[in-house]
Each structure stands twice: as C-alpha cells, then as structure tokens.
Amino acid sequence: MRRSAQDQRAALCQVLALLRRGRICSRSALAKAIGASASTLGLQVTALMQAGLVIETGAAKGLAPGRPQRRLALAPQAGCFLGLEFNAQRIQTALLDFSGNLQATQQQGIAALAGRAQVLQALEQAITTALQTTRASLLAIGVAAPGLVDRDRGMAMRSSVIADWLAVPLAEKIRQRFGCEVTVENNLRVIALAERWFGAASELEHFAVLGPRSGLGMGVVSHGQLLRGAHHSAGEIGLWPWPGDKGNLTLQDELSATAIYRRLCGQEPSGHQAIALRDFFTSHPCSEWPETARQSIVGDFARLLRSVQVMMDLQCFFLHGPLTALGPEFCEAITACAATLPPRWPELTPPRLEPSSLGDEAGALGAATLAMEHWQPEV
C-alpha cells in the first residue's frame, strides 16, 4: 500500500531524530533501529540528503570487513529552531542549529505586573532580537508558557502569575508575525524535555522536574512520554490546597521560590519581592537558615515529593529554578527527610531529589527542543 505524504514525513522525522541523538550513524544501523528494509532506508536517506538536511561525514569505524559504510550526520546549517520560555519576571530564548546544538541564549526582563498586551509585545521583541544572532533560516518556534496550556490548539489558557492571561491564542499570534510553525507547551513540561536532551535524564523513562519559581509546578515524564492530562493540568501541583489549618492557601503560596524567600524574611504572602531570587539563595545557603525554618521548609518539600512518589512511582526528581542555588545540600536534606516518611514499603522506592545541572535557560532549551521534535521536512 502506498504510504501517505504524512506517513512519509513521519518516517523521515524518525530518521532525523535518531541521527540527532548521535548514537546511530550508518544506514544499516538506522534501518535496524526503525525496522525498515535497506532499500527503503536508502531512499529516505537519499531524499534527506537531496533536501540538504543530511550529510556524509566519513567512513564508520569498527565495522566488519567489507565495503565501508559512510557515517551520516545532520547538516547544522540546514536551519534553526528557536525556543522561548517566560514567566512573570523574564523571557529566556535559546537558538538551536539543525543538529540540535545550542547556538545562543538571551534573557530580557518583563515589567513588574505586566499584563497580556505587555507580555505579548515583549515576546515579539525577544524573538526579533534572538533571530538577529543567526543567518540560518528559521524552521520553527517553540514557546514555553506558565500555567494551563492547550498544545493542540496552541492556546495559553490560564496563568496565576500573569494578569488577564486567559485563552491567549499564542501560537496563532506568533505564527502570523514570524511565518513559521509554532508549538506551545507548559514551561515545566518543556523543561522535562530539556532534562532528557541536555541534562541527566537521558536514560530515564520515569522522572519529574520540580519547579518552585514565581509559582510551583511539576513536569512529569512516564514511560518516556510527557503527561498532560485530560484538561491540560497535569503537574499543576502548585494549585493543590495546602493541608492543615492554613486557610485558603495553596502549595505555591508556601513552596514557590518567592514564598520560600518570604518565609525566610518573615514577610506576609503579599509582601513585595525586591531582590533577584537566585542571588538571594546563593548568599543564604540553607545551612545558615534558622533551624526551625530549615526543618519546616525541608519537611514540607519532603512530604510533597513523598506524596507524588506514592502516586507516580518515579525514578528521580530534578529541582529547577532559583532554589538550585542552594546546592546539593538542600536536595540531600529533602531526600533524607522524605525517606523517613510513610509508607516504608521496600517495594516503593523513596523519592530522590537532585539539583539540575541546567540553568535558567532550561525552559528555552526545552521549547526549542519541542519545536525541533515537531517540525517535519517538506520532502
């Protein structure tokens, strides 16, 4: 049966993805990995080479005697993918070449208390500025947005950290302005993609990123796939009601990076934050916190992770955001505390929290990766 054009593009994308990861570089290995015949794979590679997307780089080493096979690689100059991630304070961009290598990152601030119109204008300016750093053709843009995101429709549905941010047709607005494919996703979910491509989760099938920043969220990967949920709200743990006698507070009112700063400074939840959070936590390591505050904050995070672990049975949690400035000691204290909490079943592994090696560019990296994964060649 003749394959549809969509099926053919999907097959070519599979080849591109395998080459991009750099673990397979020959035609025979590619054919085996995707379950294609040598002739079919050969036609696919030829099409990609004619389109300028794949190149031969030399003979593969360590092969059995016989005709040498040529190494295949992606052509870095074939185009670029732009990712941007934003929250209530700043916009971060990352530019990847066609091979998936990082070319440039930039950051710009967002005015305090900015609303929908100001944020959209700032996003457009950030994209324009980022594109001035490359001569490669722009193939696709990925956007990581806070809060609820409907990726199928490219809609940013709701955010608790940006005023009047409701049902924003983000993909459509950016597509109209820059004329390329645009994919929109929740920021913690794309950070999970960045952790898989550029961080410590490349070999993990079940993990989560914990993002206590201006809000609090979690991006979860199960069986190698991002979890989104029936209503796009999977991972919105910051909206959980705070247990106990805390009134109408939610988890992000107590465990976002902003909330931790206020707890340490003795501020009310509505107190003004006038300092860069990463700078604050760099100069205030948890070993110097008052013991009661340290026990309370570590214990709260430990209970949160233990609860998620009982539900999801993950291999590891990765901490992202300003609290990574506290270093491994903070994560080790949470991991140790979580191991003491029930249930103590030998079959249920205690949660392990590690600080991510990725910095503030993680969300933009993940957004660019999202654009890269969803782009399809027109060959």
Indicate the topology.
Elements: H1 5-21, H2 27-34, H3 38-50, E1 54-59, E2 70-74, E3 80-86, E4 90-97, E5 102-109, H4 116-131, E6 138-145, E7 148-150, E8 155-158, E9 166-168, H5 170-178, E10 181-186, H6 187-198, E11 207-212, E12 216-222, E13 225-226, H7 251-255, H8 257-265, H9 277-283, H10 291-312, E14 316-319, H11 328-338, E15 353-355, H12 362-374
Parallel strand pairs: 3-6, 6-10, 11-14, 14-15
Antiparallel strand pairs: 1-2, 3-4, 4-5, 7-8, 8-9, 11-12, 12-13
Would you give an account of this structure?
With 379 residues, the chain is an alpha/beta fold. It folds into three domains: 5-74, Arc Repressor Mutant, subunit A (Orthogonal Bundle); 79-192 and 362-374, ATPase, nucleotide binding domain (Nucleotidyltransferase, domain 5); 203-355, ATPase, nucleotide binding domain (Nucleotidyltransferase, domain 5), CATH 3.30.420.40. The chain is 37% helix and 21% strand. The protein has twelve helices and 15 strands. The chain has helices spanning 5-21, 27-34, 38-50, 116-131, 170-178, 187-198, 251-255, 257-265, 277-283, 291-312, 328-338, 362-374, and strands at residues 54-59, 70-74, 80-86, 90-97, 102-109, 138-145, 148-150, 155-158, 166-168, 181-186, 207-212, 216-222, 225-226, 316-319, 353-355. It has a five-stranded mixed beta sheet with strand order 5-4-3-6-10. Helix 10 crosses helix 11. The longest helix has 22 residues, at 291-312. The protein is globular and about 65 Å long.
